[in-house]
Amino acid sequence: MKNLFTTVLFMLPICIFAQNTDYKVSSYKDEGFKAPNTHYIGEAWLNGVLQADDETDFNITKATFKANSTLDWHKHSTSQVLIYVDGEGYYQERGKAPVILKAGDVIKCDKETEHWHASTKDSDVTYLAIYGGGQPTTWTEVVTQEYYDSVADQLKD
Fold first, then answer.
1. Measured between alpha carbons, how far is 50 from 60 in angstroms, rounded to an integer?
2. Residues with Cβ < 8 Å from 18, sequence gap 6 or more?
3. Kind of pairing, strands 106-109 and 80-93?
4. 142: Cβ–Cβ under 8 A, 6 or more apart, which residues?
5. Whether the Cβ atoms of residue 114 and residue 93 lie closer than 8 Å to each other
6. Which of 4, 9, 40, 85 lies 20 to 30 Å from 144 when distance is taken between CA atoms?
7. pLDDT 10s digits, 27-63
8. CB-count exposure of residue 67 (10 Å: 0-12, 13-18, 19+)
């Protein structure tokens, strides 16, 4: 009985001061949901890690694209930062040459700059996209499989 009493006295403060569960916690490690096949070719998963609100004026979305998948040309009303966390992907802004970005790379795309990004032909890619909470993405032109393949051929060497 004495041991039970000691145990209860020891456990009571732990229960009272246990971690508060009122926090809203998300994880960029969650796969997210399979995106509807709109404005891209291939397979993509999206995880809305953080949504803009009255106090936070930006979103963070984790995007994972299977190899040989691409977004269409688009632009945002705010700047966008892409942080590549796994794999390799293509990135191109209108009027500039495409490049390959790899895990660890960070690139900023200025607001209203038309661009597209994708996985490479042979590698899945995962990145965190940080962008303003304002207007939704404006989709401007389809990236065709032929164009994507030509970029892949160009960057192969």
1. 5
2. none
3. antiparallel
4. 72, 73
5. yes
6. 85
7. 777 777 788 778 989 999 999 888 888 888 898 999 9
8. middle
Q: How many helices (H) and strands (E) does the chain have?
A: 2, 12
Residue carrying the six token digits 């495409």? 98
In angstroms, what CA-CA distances link 5 with 1, 16, 110?
6, 17, 64
Q: Which residues pair with 117 in a beta bridge?
A: 91
Number of Cβ within 10 Å of residue 143's Cβ equals 21
Q: Which tokens is 6 given? A: 């000691």
Do 57 and 129 form a contact (C-beta atoms < 8 A)?
Answer: no
Tell me the C-alpha distance between 55 and 44, whole Å: 29
Give the model confidence (pLDDT) of 120-135 as tens digits. Answer: 999 999 999 999 977 7
Residue 75, C-beta contacts closer than 8 angstroms, at least 6 positions apart: 111, 112, 113, 114, 115, 137, 138, 140
How many residues comprise the chain?
A: 157
Q: Which two tokens stand for residue 24?
A: 């809203």
Structure tokens at 97: 């040459």
Residue with tokens 């207007």: 135
